[in-house]
Specification:
- The protein has 327 residues and is of the alpha/beta class.
- It contains twelve helices and nine strands.
- The protein has a five-stranded parallel sheet. A four-stranded parallel sheet has the order 2-1-3-4, with helices on both faces.
- Helix 2 crosses helix 12.
- Bound molecules: phosphoric acid mono(formamide)ester.
- Phosphoric acid mono(formamide)ester binds next to helix 2.
């Protein structure tokens, strides 16, 4: 596919192609010479209209490891400040010879709008959604999937490894584009997905989420929602915690951060509910001591958080490579 905007319509074989390609690039990254000439001559532009540490930098290093040239856009020092529109900004990057645009924006749908404009112009540019509002963050969910599947079989990560496993997603689901993309990818694997959070942070969209015409019939039977963390954690194989996104909360936060930690925070005591070999993930950035206790976050036996960041480079290399015409 030319663009990666959402995981809603991803097919199982597409996930496995990305996982296997990322595994190959992980091997490349473990070598002394970490670079391949695959995208030589191509230009990858990182158009981040919203702050980022992990996503922006890992796309940049991924593009560089593939020998592409990279352009980084900083809204505060760009001609956006003079009133240039987002679409005109994208067209300016197109005119400079950009082959792939990686877009992050605080409004849902901006990457789709840019992709539509590129199609209208007949431009052969790939658009990758690096997080749009509360909609989706496909590359984060793909790196989460790669991290989990590699944990289960490092030499051959594949979605079938997750069939029947229980994954809990705990926290601020309503504001989380990461949760939305992860629900699509995890349901595609055959896993059971348990969402847990305070009612004020749980969305209403899951009622219709799994019931579009194209959604496989068994998705709804494997998606569960809890107002209590205990049933979500019981026998869980993987626990994904999510940041409380204070910047997206338009009303007073309910519950408070302290109450949230007491009721939903992932702590060593609560992990006893899970499978003995449970692993914890968090997309970052973390509010230390809120979503997860600080010592747990840094425990290499239980936390995959650093591994998620490392996986991000290989997975984003795979995405750029496949979008750039890699076979
Ligand atoms: N997980 C994530 O998107 O992190 P950044 O905001 O740092 O890119």
């Amino acid at each position: 596919r030319r663009h990666i905007l959402s995981l809603a319509d991803f097919r199982p074989e597409e996930y496995n192609t990305i996982l296997q390609t990322a595994a190959s690039f992980s091997e490349v990254l473990s070598r002394r010479t970490k670079k391949v000439p695959t995208l030589q001559g191509q230009v990858v532009a990182n158009l981040f209209f919203e702050p980022s540490t992990r996503t922006r930098n890992s796309f940049e290093i991924a593009a560089k490891r593939l020998s592409a040239d990279t352009l980084n856009f900083a809204p505060g020092t760009s001609s956006l400040t003079k009133g240039e529109t987002i679409l005109d900004t994208a067209k300016t990057y197109l005119a400079m010879g950009t082959d792939m645009m990686v877009i992050r924006h605080r409004e849902a749908g901006v990457p789709n709008a840019i992709a539509a404009e590129m199609e209208r112009l007949g431009a052969k540019v790939g658009v990758l959604n690096a997080g749009d509002g509360q909609h989706e963050h496909p590359s984060q969910a793909l790196l989460d999937l790669f991290t989990i599947c590699s944990r289960l079989d490092a030499s051959h990560p594949r979605i079938e490894l997750l069939a029947g496993k229980k994954v809990a997603i705990v926290g601020d689901i309503i504001h989380s584009r990461v949760a939305r993309s992860n629900i699509w990818s995890l349901l595609a694997t055959g896993a059971q997905v348990h969402l847990a959070g305070p009612p004020t942070l749980l969305p209403k969209w899951f009622a219709s989420f799994t019931q579009t015409a194209d959604t496989p019939a068994d998705y709804a039977s494997r998606l569960f929602v809890h107002w209590d963390v205990v049933p979500a954690l019981q026998e869980a194989d993987f626990v994904m915690t999510l940041r409380l996104q204070k910047e997206r909360m338009t009303q007073h936060l309910l519950p408070s951060l302290r109450e949230y930690h007491q009721r939903f925070g992932i702590t060593r005591d609560r992990l006893h509910l899970c499978q003995p070999d449970v692993q914890i993930l968090h997309p970052g950035p973390v509010n230390r001591g809120v979503e997860i206790s600080s010592d747990l976050m840094d425990d290499p036996k239980l936390s995959l958080i650093a591994q998620q960041v490392t996986s991000g480079v290989a997975v984003r290399m795979a995405l750029l490579y496949l979008m750039g015409g890699g076979k």
